Amino acid sequence: MSQTPLPPLNALRSFEATARLGGVGRAAEALHVTHGAISRQLRLLEEHLGVTLFEREGRGVRLTAAGTALQAACDGAFTQIRDAVDRLQRQQRPDALVLGCSGSILARWMIPRLPALQAELPQLALHWSAQDGSFTEQQQALDAVLLLAQPPWPRGWQVRELAPERVGVVVSPQHPAAARFRHQPPHALLGEPLLHTTSRPQAWPEWALSHGLDPAQLQLGTGFEHLYFLLEAAVAGLGVAIAPEPLVADELAAGRLLAPWGFGATGGFWVLATPEGRQDARVDALSDWLASTLA
């Protein structure tokens, strides 16, 4: 009996990420492609199957009954594939601690600090795995994950809170509004086009509320799929951004960015978690170093 041909793998991959993360923008960031590329793959998949998989809901999407059925199948299949690949890779580096981390944290904060980590813990062999920030207890091929998150944590994890997440407005000193921001309260931001990212759509509204501003008065400007690109645009003087403090610490120290109103806690935490719940002295040593560095 002939088998039903499968849809294109890229289309299934785009669907799985969108369903798991709850939005096209988040899926685009996770897969390092554009919003339009994900949308095209979703249309291709719906045309192939002859069903509607998503319905728009506010700024996100909601699965239809057909989409829910397909997600259940994709979740198990993609988890098995990821775990099999990770196990095969682990066999090639049996002594390395496998650490999952978002691409933005890895590129902007962790990599510049690897020399200090290696000097402090020279015997610690690490393998870094760029992740999309949506971790589950089924990801057993990771020894630990470093991420910004809020409780509740996935079931079965051992979580160590390393530091509170602190976010704030940042701007290049070359930006026309930078000098004005230094001497005025946060309402000076109103009317300025704000750089934003689809992966953290609530960042600006939450900041506005915490500073007594009406989020509806904010003017969103250029958007980016990835936080990394957003911060590069801010450094280039293309606009005003909002960012976690550690991810802009080097730029602040070098004077490439200013934080006119400082940073405030958001309720999130930098955490290190072990999905398998294993007791590993290397994880403890890494946790201690990370907590000290983030302090």
Fold and architecture overview:
The protein contains 10 helices and 10 strands. It is an alpha/beta fold and 295 residues long. It has 2 domains: 9-88, Orthogonal Bundle (Arc Repressor Mutant, subunit A); 96-295, D-Maltodextrin-Binding Protein, domain 2, CATH 3.40.190.290. Strands 4-3-5-10-6-9 form a 6-stranded mixed β-sheet. A two-stranded antiparallel ribbon has the order 1-2. Strands 7-8 form a two-stranded parallel sheet. It is globular. The N and C termini lie far apart (62 Å).
Structure classification? alpha/beta
Give the amount of beta strand, in percent. Answer: 15-25%
Give me the CATH fold name of the largest domain: D-Maltodextrin-Binding Protein, domain 2
Order of helices and strands: HHHEEHEHEEEHEHEHEHEH
Tell me the CATH architecture of the largest domain. Answer: 3-Layer(aba) Sandwich
> Using only CA atoms, what is the Rg?
21 Å
CATH class of the largest domain: Alpha Beta
Number of DSSP E strands: 10
Shape: globular
Share of helical residues: 40-55%
Largest beta-sheet details: 6 strands, mixed
Q: What strand order characterises the main sheet?
A: 4-3-5-10-6-9
Which parts are unreliable, with pLDDT below 50 for 5 consecutive residues or more? none
- Average pLDDT: 87
